[in-house]
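Budget justification note: compute hours in this period were largely spent on complex prediction jobs such as the one shown. Inputs:
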Amino acid sequence: NAGVTQTPKFQVLKTGQSMTLQCAQDMNHNSMYWYRQDPGMGLRLIYYSASEGTTDKGEVPNGYNVSRLNKREFSLRLESAAPSQTSVYFCASSNHYRERGNQPQHFGDGTRLSIL
Amino acid sequence: AQSVAQPEDQVNVAEGNPLTVKCTYSVSGNPYLFWYVQYPNRGLQFLLKYITGDNLVKGSYGFEAEFNKSQTSFHLKKPSALVSDSALYFCAVSLTSGTYKYIFGTGTRLKVLA
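Corresponding output:
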Protein backbone atom coordinates (compact mmCIF):
# COMPACT_ATOMS: atom_id res chain seq x y z
CA ASN A 1 0.00 0.00 0.00
CA ALA A 2 1.91 3.06 -1.30
CA GLY A 3 -0.24 5.82 0.28
CA VAL A 4 0.90 9.18 -1.12
CA THR A 5 3.68 9.11 -3.71
CA GLN A 6 5.60 12.20 -4.77
CA THR A 7 7.99 12.54 -7.69
CA PRO A 8 10.73 13.58 -8.02
CA LYS A 9 12.36 13.31 -4.58
CA PHE A 10 15.05 15.88 -5.38
CA GLN A 11 15.41 18.56 -8.03
CA VAL A 12 17.77 21.44 -8.76
CA LEU A 13 16.56 24.19 -11.07
CA LYS A 14 17.96 27.41 -12.41
CA THR A 15 16.06 30.65 -11.89
CA GLY A 16 13.39 31.01 -14.56
CA GLN A 17 13.05 27.33 -15.35
CA SER A 18 9.72 25.58 -15.00
CA MET A 19 8.80 22.22 -13.59
CA THR A 20 5.89 20.14 -12.36
CA LEU A 21 5.82 18.21 -9.10
CA GLN A 22 3.69 15.10 -9.26
CA CYS A 23 1.57 13.57 -6.50
CA ALA A 24 -0.63 10.48 -6.50
CA GLN A 25 -2.62 8.79 -3.74
CA ASP A 26 -4.15 5.34 -3.71
CA MET A 27 -6.44 5.72 -0.67
CA ASN A 28 -9.48 6.99 -2.57
CA HIS A 29 -9.32 10.27 -0.68
CA ASN A 30 -11.44 13.18 -1.87
CA SER A 31 -9.15 16.05 -0.85
CA MET A 32 -5.55 16.72 -1.78
CA TYR A 33 -3.10 19.42 -0.68
CA TRP A 34 0.24 20.99 -1.49
CA TYR A 35 2.37 22.46 1.32
CA ARG A 36 5.82 23.92 1.53
CA GLN A 37 8.01 23.46 4.58
CA ASP A 38 10.64 26.02 5.47
CA PRO A 39 12.77 26.13 8.64
CA GLY A 40 10.98 27.82 11.53
CA MET A 41 7.78 28.32 9.54
CA GLY A 42 6.06 24.97 9.78
CA LEU A 43 3.88 23.89 6.89
CA ARG A 44 2.23 26.52 4.73
CA LEU A 45 -0.62 25.63 2.42
CA ILE A 46 -0.03 26.51 -1.23
CA TYR A 47 -3.14 25.09 -2.91
CA TYR A 48 -5.70 22.46 -2.14
CA SER A 49 -8.39 20.52 -3.93
CA ALA A 50 -11.40 19.71 -1.78
CA SER A 51 -12.72 17.29 -4.39
CA GLU A 52 -12.08 16.21 -7.96
CA GLY A 53 -12.65 19.14 -10.29
CA THR A 54 -12.06 21.90 -7.73
CA THR A 55 -8.97 23.78 -6.61
CA ASP A 56 -8.51 26.67 -4.20
CA LYS A 57 -5.70 28.93 -3.09
CA GLY A 58 -4.06 28.47 0.24
CA GLU A 59 -1.83 30.78 2.24
CA VAL A 60 1.05 31.16 -0.25
CA PRO A 61 -0.21 30.53 -3.82
CA ASN A 62 1.82 33.14 -5.72
CA GLY A 63 4.17 31.65 -8.30
CA TYR A 64 2.39 28.28 -8.36
CA ASN A 65 -0.38 26.58 -10.29
CA VAL A 66 -2.09 23.26 -9.69
CA SER A 67 -4.06 20.66 -11.60
CA ARG A 68 -6.33 18.01 -10.12
CA LEU A 69 -5.94 15.59 -12.97
CA ASN A 70 -8.32 12.99 -11.52
CA LYS A 71 -9.23 11.73 -8.07
CA ARG A 72 -5.79 10.18 -7.59
CA GLU A 73 -3.46 12.84 -8.93
CA PHE A 74 -2.73 16.46 -7.97
CA SER A 75 0.21 18.25 -9.58
CA LEU A 76 1.99 21.48 -8.63
CA ARG A 77 3.65 23.61 -11.31
CA LEU A 78 6.28 26.31 -10.97
CA GLU A 79 6.09 28.36 -14.17
CA SER A 80 9.20 30.48 -13.59
CA ALA A 81 11.20 29.29 -10.61
CA ALA A 82 12.69 31.81 -8.19
CA PRO A 83 15.25 31.28 -5.40
CA SER A 84 12.51 32.08 -2.83
CA GLN A 85 10.78 28.89 -3.91
CA THR A 86 13.65 26.75 -2.63
CA SER A 87 11.88 24.53 -0.12
CA VAL A 88 10.63 21.07 0.69
CA TYR A 89 7.24 20.44 -0.88
CA PHE A 90 4.76 17.99 0.61
CA CYS A 91 1.62 16.57 -0.89
CA ALA A 92 -1.13 15.29 1.40
CA SER A 93 -4.56 13.73 1.08
CA SER A 94 -7.53 13.21 3.38
CA ASN A 95 -11.25 12.59 3.57
CA HIS A 96 -14.01 14.64 5.13
CA TYR A 97 -17.31 13.38 6.46
CA ARG A 98 -20.33 15.38 7.52
CA GLU A 99 -20.80 13.29 10.66
CA ARG A 100 -17.18 12.37 11.42
CA GLY A 101 -15.52 15.56 10.28
CA ASN A 102 -12.09 16.19 8.83
CA GLN A 103 -9.90 13.11 9.01
CA PRO A 104 -6.12 13.04 9.50
CA GLN A 105 -4.01 13.86 6.50
CA HIS A 106 -1.64 11.37 4.90
CA PHE A 107 1.62 12.84 3.61
CA GLY A 108 4.13 11.90 0.95
CA ASP A 109 7.84 11.98 1.73
CA GLY A 110 8.40 15.29 -0.01
CA THR A 111 10.24 16.83 -2.93
CA ARG A 112 13.40 18.74 -2.04
CA LEU A 113 13.67 21.59 -4.51
CA SER A 114 16.65 23.93 -4.85
CA ILE A 115 16.57 26.91 -7.16
CA LEU A 116 19.88 28.51 -8.03
CA ALA B 1 -7.90 34.54 12.34
CA GLN B 2 -7.31 30.90 13.09
CA SER B 3 -3.89 30.00 14.39
CA VAL B 4 -1.89 27.33 16.13
CA ALA B 5 1.03 28.08 18.43
CA GLN B 6 3.81 25.78 19.54
CA PRO B 7 5.70 28.01 21.97
CA GLU B 8 8.84 25.87 22.23
CA ASP B 9 11.16 25.43 19.28
CA GLN B 10 12.94 22.60 21.09
CA VAL B 11 12.28 20.38 24.08
CA ASN B 12 15.02 18.31 25.70
CA VAL B 13 14.17 15.44 28.02
CA ALA B 14 16.12 12.57 29.52
CA GLU B 15 15.25 9.05 28.44
CA GLY B 16 12.72 7.50 30.80
CA ASN B 17 11.36 10.87 31.95
CA PRO B 18 7.88 12.12 31.03
CA LEU B 19 7.66 14.52 28.12
CA THR B 20 5.26 17.30 27.19
CA VAL B 21 5.10 19.19 23.91
CA LYS B 22 2.83 22.21 24.10
CA CYS B 23 0.19 23.41 21.64
CA THR B 24 -2.40 26.18 21.90
CA TYR B 25 -4.93 27.16 19.28
CA SER B 26 -7.23 30.00 18.34
CA VAL B 27 -10.31 29.23 16.24
CA SER B 28 -13.75 30.73 15.97
CA GLY B 29 -15.66 27.44 16.12
CA ASN B 30 -15.22 23.93 17.45
CA PRO B 31 -11.88 22.44 16.45
CA TYR B 32 -10.57 19.12 15.36
CA LEU B 33 -7.03 18.79 16.71
CA PHE B 34 -4.19 16.62 15.47
CA TRP B 35 -0.61 15.74 16.31
CA TYR B 36 1.90 14.57 13.73
CA VAL B 37 5.51 13.45 13.94
CA GLN B 38 8.19 13.95 11.29
CA TYR B 39 11.42 11.99 11.09
CA PRO B 40 14.36 13.20 8.97
CA ASN B 41 13.72 13.18 5.23
CA ARG B 42 10.20 11.84 5.70
CA GLY B 43 6.68 13.22 5.50
CA LEU B 44 4.49 13.87 8.51
CA GLN B 45 2.95 10.84 10.19
CA PHE B 46 -0.34 10.99 12.10
CA LEU B 47 -0.10 10.34 15.86
CA LEU B 48 -3.50 11.15 17.33
CA LYS B 49 -6.58 13.33 17.02
CA TYR B 50 -9.27 14.93 19.13
CA ILE B 51 -12.72 15.08 17.59
CA THR B 52 -15.10 15.03 20.52
CA GLY B 53 -15.63 13.15 23.75
CA ASP B 54 -12.94 12.32 26.31
CA ASN B 55 -10.43 15.08 26.83
CA LEU B 56 -7.57 12.59 27.08
CA VAL B 57 -6.79 11.06 23.71
CA LYS B 58 -4.49 8.06 23.25
CA GLY B 59 -2.51 7.58 20.07
CA SER B 60 0.36 5.72 18.46
CA TYR B 61 3.69 4.78 20.11
CA GLY B 62 2.40 5.44 23.65
CA PHE B 63 1.64 9.12 23.06
CA GLU B 64 -1.42 10.84 24.45
CA ALA B 65 -2.79 14.37 24.39
CA GLU B 66 -5.03 16.34 26.68
CA PHE B 67 -7.66 18.67 25.25
CA ASN B 68 -8.41 21.67 27.47
CA LYS B 69 -11.18 23.83 26.06
CA SER B 70 -10.92 26.62 28.62
CA GLN B 71 -7.19 27.02 28.01
CA THR B 72 -7.50 26.25 24.25
CA SER B 73 -4.64 23.81 24.55
CA PHE B 74 -3.85 20.35 23.24
CA HIS B 75 -0.54 19.29 24.77
CA LEU B 76 1.18 16.10 23.66
CA LYS B 77 2.45 13.82 26.42
CA LYS B 78 4.23 10.55 26.99
CA PRO B 79 4.89 9.01 30.42
CA SER B 80 8.37 7.68 29.58
CA ALA B 81 10.43 9.08 26.70
CA LEU B 82 12.56 6.96 24.39
CA VAL B 83 15.60 8.07 22.40
CA SER B 84 13.69 6.95 19.30
CA ASP B 85 11.01 9.58 20.07
CA SER B 86 13.48 12.27 18.99
CA ALA B 87 11.84 13.98 16.01
CA LEU B 88 9.92 17.07 14.91
CA TYR B 89 6.35 17.30 16.20
CA PHE B 90 3.54 19.33 14.66
CA CYS B 91 0.19 20.32 16.09
CA ALA B 92 -2.63 21.05 13.61
CA VAL B 93 -6.22 22.27 13.80
CA SER B 94 -9.20 22.08 11.48
CA LEU B 95 -12.69 23.42 12.02
CA THR B 96 -15.55 21.01 12.50
CA SER B 97 -17.45 22.48 9.61
CA GLY B 98 -17.14 24.76 6.64
CA THR B 99 -13.55 24.14 5.68
CA TYR B 100 -11.27 21.49 4.29
CA LYS B 101 -8.15 23.31 5.44
CA TYR B 102 -5.78 22.44 8.25
CA ILE B 103 -3.54 24.94 10.04
CA PHE B 104 -0.20 23.75 11.35
CA GLY B 105 2.01 25.04 14.12
CA THR B 106 5.65 25.79 13.45
CA GLY B 107 6.83 22.54 14.99
CA THR B 108 8.74 21.53 18.11
CA ARG B 109 11.93 19.53 17.94
CA LEU B 110 12.06 16.90 20.65
CA LYS B 111 15.45 15.59 21.72
CA VAL B 112 15.51 12.64 24.09
CA LEU B 113 18.91 12.26 25.71
CA ALA B 114 20.27 8.84 26.67
